[in-house]
Recover the amino acids of this structure.
């Protein structure tokens, strides 16, 4: 079968190659892939900055944001069921053993399409049923957005747990740094939670401003208004989610949040950039304001399930919003060219058929 592949560590190696059919083990589910989303991590892998091929292989099938349909009855799933797969596969650590491989202790986890195990941008894949999430038909067209949403679902769940460190925390205002899919989906989650949200990105994109207005989220561009000035429009910022892919912005974000607030960092920055920082100011803010800073990566099954509920709720409240995030559809034959980051797009997906 055909698949979108890379040679990890070699920049520009993305290509559609013929790879072996998936091996369907006992109890495994064969999934016919419908579409796969491409993201910043795929672009990093394509630049040779990140990613690992399976043991003994040079080539990695890329793609971790999946949507497909069960090819034949298996694992309690019937033929045709729309499904999304999670990404991370456990090692034997105590967290992984209890289904929390997103909090792996030993670091021996593998990630489909990223680290040591082939991904989903192929005509078919086989998977254990416990790593597949059936989604309702009502959200089938947008379910490819479930994985990028699951990152915020996890971050928000963790903030909820950590903020029980105090008696009362009632967040009202949020800034999301980054207007890519993770940022926009983070804004959506926070809007569903009733927060007043502003999405900030570097250059002003009127289309995005209009799109975010549909869910009642504000928008600002740092080319026009510096990040701190955006924050100063509110009396206090309670939550900042950073999703720009740039570590320097992540550190800037640490200054924005007010008393007892939380900063969620989501960018996977595989390059080796350095930056100068106003370290005293940042540290002072974190300490004097009891700021919670947490990194979040990957997600567990609870987050995927919450994500399914949130996608369904968002479709009901703001019909068409999620679909509008998919701005480019390419065929598998053209997928290698779509791997590099294109700032004019929100979500690029590869359509298998
Ligand atoms: C994926 C995560 C993954 C992370 C690190 C992200 O793009 O969404 O699931 O854990 O990359 O590899």
């Amino acid at each position: 079968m055909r698949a979108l592949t890379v040679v990890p560590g070699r920049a520009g190696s993305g290509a559609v190659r013929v790879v072996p059919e998936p091996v369907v083990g006992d109890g495994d589910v064969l999934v016919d892939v419908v579409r796969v989303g491409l993201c910043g991590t795929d672009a990093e892998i394509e630049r040779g900055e990140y990613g690992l091929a399976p043991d003994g292989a040079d080539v990695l099938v890329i793609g971790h944001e999946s949507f497909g349909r069960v090819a034949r009855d298996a694992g309690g799933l019937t033929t045709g069921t729309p499904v999304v797969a999670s990404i991370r596969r456990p090692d034997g650590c105590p967290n992984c053993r209890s289904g929390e491989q997103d909090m792996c202790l030993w670091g021996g986890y593998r990630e489909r399409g990223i680290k040591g195990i082939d991904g989903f941008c192929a005509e078919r894949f086989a998977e254990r049923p416990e790593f597949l999430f059936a989604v309702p038909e009502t959200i089938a067209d947008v379910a490819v957005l479930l994985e990028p949403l699951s990152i915020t679902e996890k971050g928000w769940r963790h903030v909820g747990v950590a903020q029980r460190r105090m008696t009362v925390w009632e967040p009202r205002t949020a800034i999301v740094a980054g207007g890519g899919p993770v940022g926009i989906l983070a804004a959506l989650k926070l809007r569903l939670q009733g927060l007043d949200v502003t999405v900030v990105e570097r250059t002003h994109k009127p289309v995005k401003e209009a799109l975010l207005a549909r869910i009642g989220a504000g928008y600002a561009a740092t080319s026009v208004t510096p990040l701190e000035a955006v924050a100063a429009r509110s009396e206090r910022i309670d939550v900042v989610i950073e999703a720009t892919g740039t570590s320097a912005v992540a550190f800037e974000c640490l200054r924005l949040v007010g008393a007892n607030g939380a900063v969620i960092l989501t960018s996977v920055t595989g390059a080796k950039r350095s930056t100068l920082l106003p370290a005293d100011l940042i540290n002072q803010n974190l300490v004097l304001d009891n700021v919670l800073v947490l990194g979040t990566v990957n997600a567990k099954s609870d987050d995927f399930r919450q994500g399914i509920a949130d996608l369904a709720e968002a479709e009901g409240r703001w019909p068409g919003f999620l679909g509008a995030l998919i701005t480019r559809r390419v065929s598998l034959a053209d997928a290698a060219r779509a791997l590099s980051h294109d700032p004019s797009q929100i979500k690029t997906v590869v359509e298998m058929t």
About this structure: The chain has a mean pLDDT of 97. The chain has two domains: 2-134+325-351, 150-295.
